Each structure stands twice: as structure tokens, then as C-alpha cells.
Amino acid sequence: MEALSNPREQNSEIESAVRNLLSCIRRHSSPQAHENPNSSPTVAPQPGTSASFGVGQTVSRPNTVQQEMQRAFPALYHGSRKRMKKMAPEPAKLTSVKFLEFQFCLLSKNSQKTPKDETVLLQAGLGRRTVNIPDNADHTEITKVLLQEYPKLQNLRGGWLPQKASGKFMIPNAFTYFLSFYQHCYCFSHVYLKGDSGQMKTTSLAQDSHGYTAKILKTSSNNGKNVIYIVPLQEEIDITPLPYNAPEFHNMPKNICMTCGISVPFQLLPCPLEDCQSNNVIESESDKEKENEEAHGLSHKSDVICLDACPICGEEFSAEVMPYHASTCAESFPEIFPSIMDGNSVDETASLPSQTSTRLQSTTFQLDPDHLTPGPSVSAESAPSMCDDWKRIELPERPAIQYRQCTLRQKEDEPPLKVRIDIREDMEDQEGRMIHFYKVPKIDWTRPLQCQLEGDVATGDGVQRHFFSMVMHKLQNGFLFNVGNGNGTALFEGQADHLIPSTSLVLLQSDLFVMTGRIIGNSFLHGGPSLASVSPAIVHVLLGGSPQTATITIEDVADIDIRETIQMLAVGDSKNDFTEDQKAPINQLAMSWDLPVLTTTKRTWLLHNLLQHAVLTRTWRQVKQLRQGLKETMVWQLLEARPDVASVIFTRQSMADWSTQVLLNNIIWPMEDEEGDNEPPFTTQCRISGYLRKFVETADQCKLKQLVKFWVGWELPMKEMQVKVVQAESPTSSTCFCILRLPAHYTTYDHFKKHLEICIATSDVGFGLV
């Protein structure tokens, strides 16, 4: 108990000492202490003791320690806070809005690939734009910003969806089996290759229940570094180029074109420069032609031209042009004839009166276009409705003809493409002119074509037929110029009906297969010969088919050595093993193409892959260039919508070799009532006509094609091929009018056959007649 009472006694003593100290301080500081110094001090009672007080005395309770400490040390207790200086209020924090920079690209239609050429989209007010969006923007604010940046989105129906590039290139079909083989052998989990056109796949952006927010766009675009593609879902946006003062171009920096003086957006400035330069070239050529004609006295000096109406189409032409128009006006109303395979010919020219008159105007008379009003019988406004019918026609030949007519009609008023061939030069120089013409980039190949033979006075559609016949012949059989492949250069190799593109790296790097696609498409648009004997496997892959589903035969292998090696796998007995000598060339070929060596279990698999590599894998880049050339000539649109038309553009050799009866059905023989004063007797006409019929019935396919080419300009029989017997020395022809003139002095068939074969063999060196 003493140990416990000692601390309490010590605390009470300390408390008494403090109280006495405070009492002394209060007594000395109070005024009563100075007035009455003799008064006795008041002694505080000790704790644990009692004090007695007199009656009537008022004794106040002693202050607690807390109260005394507050008085002694006021700054240490809460009462001092009221007496402290108030602190200044903190200023209100301003919430700053941070803007994020995104790159958007508006596409014209629903697609799962990135656009290949954004220039077309940019000209239509679409394409890539840089947009600033607040970091706290929601779906409504983002939509509002995009509608301001792309005005065409305001009228878009069916909604739109933002997408991003997945980073995976489109893998060519020809490499699919390679990828599966490499993944199986080397355990590759992801193999990405550059695809068919350098385009990447796109995937939709993730979104929450409230739509897209700025945070989602920031995460999906890697902080704005990647492009976000806006894809229309149900409706396509028109990609017609807009005028340069359109609202879509208001925010773009502009510059003045020095050629035409128009304010052009800086990003679109290269486009009008090319158009202006092409227009200047056309104007300069027309000026030179006018000067040359004025020098020869052929310029039209009359200010007033009398126009006559054509009785067939109703169009008005001058007296000088009317004879030429009348000769081709009937072709402006082409009919859909049965195909050649059915036993009749197809009128492939489908010439339009405006095209013919425009060509004659620019080459012969150079009349003032203000006084001449050529035009088609069907207006341009009604063309789109007619151009949609070819999608619903069943037979492949008819939609091909109708699509060709609609495409040419839409471009008939544009300046023609001009090509000149000097027949006085050697064949290699002529080939150089052809290659130079078809290798010019960024050309609208649907425009009218104007061919001119320098060194020959021939004009008209026959010259155009002669040009296409010569070009397609070179494409089919090879050019004479040498690039290290021997005496000539063949773009296609192999046997009939199994031709594949050449695997020459020089031809591929020279973009000659892009030129080939342009030639094929341009010849098709103008009704020219088609490319025959192409392998069906190449056509299948060209149209977008998978190499795994292509039908490949051993005849499709163009290289004889490779064919013999693969033939060993095809004809060998599967039950017996190969000897080491037999395995050596097969294994060597397989290892050179990165394929496994021959085993007992992989024989069929190796045979299939060797064929696929020899025919398709080695030529996939050539096929890609062919597709690019067809796209530039607008023929690819037809093939995409109607793949069955490929049989018309890439015909089989059996279909290209028409029968004798086809030619005889299209010949118009002399009639008895047509005998004139200067014409031989009808009996003589019948004798010469009999000689010609016998020649047609007995000649081989090569001679028949030479005859038809000499007759009409190319190897395709035309409708209404006329025969006239005249007083002349040798056979002649008017290819524009499809007229063959035979001399009447022949008395024996052998004499007639000898002269006719000599004449038809000279069709490559010119015409000699107008």
C-alpha cells in the first residue's frame, strides 16, 4: 500500500506547489494586493484535510488544472484558434479540357480491308483527316465532331462503324499450303506476308453500353498513332470528285494551279496538274494538225456549214462527213447476235456514230466542233439504266457486248487516245511503239481509240482492227525483241489451252504483265480478238479463286524438264519404291522449292504441291499484274460481277478456231441484179465466187485467219462480209466496209489460189488503199 500511495502523495504535493505558485502570482498582480498589503494570504487547503470557515463567508471552488493551464499557456489550447489570424481561402481549381488528336479515314463502302488508293477518296471529300476530340468526350460528342469534318456522313443511312487495322496483311492464296507446311515443320505460330495489294484486314473497335468514348478511341488507336477507319454499314457513299470549293475542302490549305489558275487544295494539287498537262498536249496536237492541214490547203474556210440529217440515226452532219458517217451508221445499232461457238459471228465492233465522226473529224477534215453535233442515238442520261441490264442476262456473250457498249458510250465525248505505228520501220521498232503506248500510267483506257498507220494512207475502223490484231498476235505468240530468252520474248509459255505467264524476272520487273492486262482489256472493250489458250488454273486464280480448288494438270507445266520430273510421280507405281536414281531429280526439285524430299507416305502430297508450285506459285506475281491491268481498263468490274464472262475474254483454242461454216454464213455473195456497166458478167462473178468458196472450204485454220484478217482487219469474222468481182490485177479489200474485191481475169482455181495466198500474206505490211 505504501508503494501505491507514494505516487499519489507526490502528485498531490506537486499540485499544491503549483496552486501556491499561481496564488502568489495572482496576489502580486491583482490591485487589492497593492491596496491592502497586511491582509493575510489565503492558503489553499491541503488535499485530504478539511478547513473550517466562518459563517457568512463565500468560498469559491478552486480552478482546475485545465483552466489554469489555458490561462497560463493560451497559445497551446483551442481557445487560441479563435484569436489566431484567419488564413486566406484556397482558390478554386479550374478543370482544364485536354484534346486528343486522332486520324480518321472515311471509306466509301463496307469493306474488311484498308483502302488501296486514298486519292480517290480524298477527291470525293472522304479519306484521311486529323481530328481533335476532348479526352472526356462521349459517343454523342464524337459523332458531332465527325459530322462536321465529313459532311457526307450527315446524309448517310444505315449507320457507320469505326474499325482499325489488325496488322495482318492479306495472305496470297498461292502461299496457303506453304504456311501450313512451315507451321507444321518449324512450329511457327504466326506468319504474316504482304498480300495481294498491300492492304491490311480491319476489325471493329470494342465499345461499351454507351457507345464509343474518347478513352476507347485512344486505347484502340495506340494514343492516336494508328488510323481509325469509318466504314458505312448498309449504304455506299458516292466517290465522284467534288469541286475544289466544296465544304469538305474549306479547312485544307490551297494553292493556285499555274496552268488553269484555279485554287486547288494542296493535297489534291498533283491531280489537276496531270489533267492540265494532258489537256495541253491534246490542244497542242490539235493545233499542229490544224497548221498542217492549213499548209496543205485542207482547212475548212467557210464560216457557215450546211448540216444534213442522217436518215438512220437522225443526227446532223456536214456534207463532207456524211459519206463516212453513212458507211458506219448501221453499226451504231448493234444487235445481240449468237456467239461464234453457236455457228454465227458476233459483231464485236459496236461502233458508235459519234466515235466514228469524231475520229474522222480529228484526222481528216478538222472541222469546227461548234458546227458539228455528233452523238449517240441513246442519251448519256439513259445509259446507267441500260448498263445495269448486263448483270441479269444469262448467256455470257450478251452481257459482254452490252457492258462494252455502255462503257464506251460513257466516254465517247472525251478526247481520244492516239497511237501511231510506222509500217516503214522494222517489226522490233513497231513493237517498241506498242509497248510504249500501253505502258503509259494513269490513262483512262475506256476513252475512244484513234489508230494511225504512218507510211500508209488507210484510215477508218479497219486500221483499228489491224492494230488490235497485230497487238494480240504479239501477245499470243511473243515479241521479237530479245531480253536474254533466245531469239524472241514470249509473255506466255506452254502448249495450247495450257498457257501460263512467263516466270522471267526481267519481264516481271518491267511491268510487262500490267501492260498485258491493259492490252487484253482494251482489245475487249473495242471488240478485238481475245487471248486464247490460257490455262484454266491461271484464270481460276485470276478471278480470285483458291489455288487449292484449282484444277491443275501435268500439261499446265510449261518447262519440259520440270514436267518430266513431276511426270515420274504421276505415272509411277505407288506400291513400289523409287530407286535412288529416280529419287535424285525429284528430291533436288523439291528442295529447290523448299519442299520436303520424297517419302512413301507423302508421294501424293508432294505431287500435288509440285504441280501447284510449278503452275501457280511461280506465277502469282504475274497474275497480280494481270489483274491490275484489267482493273485499269474497267474490265475487272465485269469479271467480278459476272465470272462466267471470263470464257469470252480468255477463250479456249477450240472456241477461237471457228469453223468454215461460220465464215460462209457471214459472206454476202454477188447477186444477179447488182450487175452494173463496169462490172463483169454475172457468169464471171459466179465463177470467181466459186473459186473463193472452194478456197474457204479446203483451206486450213491458219489460211482462213489470214483471209479474214486481210478482209476485215482482224481474225474475227464480221457480219455482212461482202464479195465483189471487179476488173483489177490482184485482190484488194476495204476493211472499214468489210468488202473483198476479187479480179475477174482468173480462169483456173490454181491461178486464183496462188494469187490469193500471196495477197492475204501481206496484211501485216499495210493496206495501200484508203
From TrEMBL:
Residues 439-770 form the HECT domain. PANTHER family: E3 UBIQUITIN-PROTEIN LIGASE NEDD-4, HECT DOMAIN UBIQUITIN-PROTEIN LIGASE. One of its GO terms (cellular component) is cytoplasm. It holds the Pfam family HECT. SMART domains: HECTc. Pathway: Protein modification; protein ubiquitination. It catalyses: S-ubiquitinyl-[E2 ubiquitin-conjugating enzyme]-L-cysteine + [acceptor protein]-L-lysine = [E2 ubiquitin-conjugating enzyme]-L-cysteine + N(6)-ubiquitinyl-[acceptor protein]-L-lysine. GO terms for biological process: protein ubiquitination; ubiquitin-dependent protein catabolic process. Residues 30-57 have a biased composition (Polar residues). The lineage of its organism: Eukaryota, Metazoa, Chordata, Craniata, Vertebrata. GO terms for molecular function: ubiquitin protein ligase activity. Residues 29-57 are annotated as: Disordered. Keywords: Transferase, Ubl conjugation pathway. This is HECT-type E3 ubiquitin transferase. Its EC number is 2.3.2.26.
